[in-house]
């Protein structure tokens, strides 16, 4: 065999050893705890205390309107990204976000009205930008959203938001 072939084979072999060692070093820096051994803890509630108070006020209002309340619904479960070349980017913008509450038809669970309980964090610039994106995404898909800071007049707030649809 030609010496050039031996040199190429040797270089490939050395490259494989280097890649293997580099990969091993990267993984050795990660947690040594097997994924199955993570010590997860149950949260005391799906909702924050403020969200739970709102949920309790929302239940009779939704029952009177013959709607079901679904808390913490992923945006991607309400709307879907458009198919096409930008699908992954569009999906990435909605897949990890959620709406505080969704009022749905009790028979089909069709989304009727999204509800966001806006506390002081919604006054921050980044949160305002997030809210504007969600409002535009939901509105573009034909889903109404109600932002509220209080349970006062909740039935009327919901009625008005549903009429806007």
- Tell me the helix content: 40-55%
Q: What order do the strands of the largest sheet run in, or round the barrel if closed?
A: 1-2-3-4
What Rg do the Cα atoms give? 25 Å
| Beta-strand content bin | 15-25%
CATH topology value of the largest domain: tt1808, chain A
Number of strands: 4
Low-confidence stretches: none
Gap between N and C termini, in Å? 78 Å
The biggest sheet, with number of strands, parallel, antiparallel or mixed sense and barrel status, is:
4 strands, mixed
Mean pLDDT: 88
What CATH architecture label of the largest domain applies? Alpha-Beta Complex
List the helices and strands in order: HHEHHEEHEH
List the helices and strands and how they pair.
Layout: H1 3-29, H2 49-64, E1 68-74, H3 75-78, H4 87-94, E2 98-104, E3 111-117, H5 125-140, E4 144-148, H6 154-164
Parallel strand pairs: 3-4
Antiparallel strand pairs: 1-2, 2-3
């Amino acid at each position: 065999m030609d010496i050039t072939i031996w040199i190429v084979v040797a270089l490939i072999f050395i490259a494989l050893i280097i890649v293997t060692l580099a990969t091993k070093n990267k993984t050795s820096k990660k947690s040594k705890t097997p994924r199955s051994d993570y010590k997860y803890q149950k949260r005391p509630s799906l909702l924050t205390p403020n969200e739970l108070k709102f949920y309790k006020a929302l239940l009779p209002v939704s029952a009177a309107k013959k709607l079901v309340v679904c808390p913490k619904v992923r945006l991607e479960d309400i709307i879907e990204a458009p198919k096409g070349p930008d699908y992954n980017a569009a999906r990435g913008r909605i897949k990890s976000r959620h709406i505080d509450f969704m009022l749905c038809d009790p028979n089909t669970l069709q989304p009727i009205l999204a509800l966001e309980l806006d506390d002081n964090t919604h006054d921050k610039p980044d949160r305002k930008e997030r809210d504007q994106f969600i409002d535009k995404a939901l509105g573009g898909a034909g889903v109404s959203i109600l932002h509220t800071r209080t349970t006062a007049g909740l039935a009327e707030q919901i009625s008005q938001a549903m009429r806007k649809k």
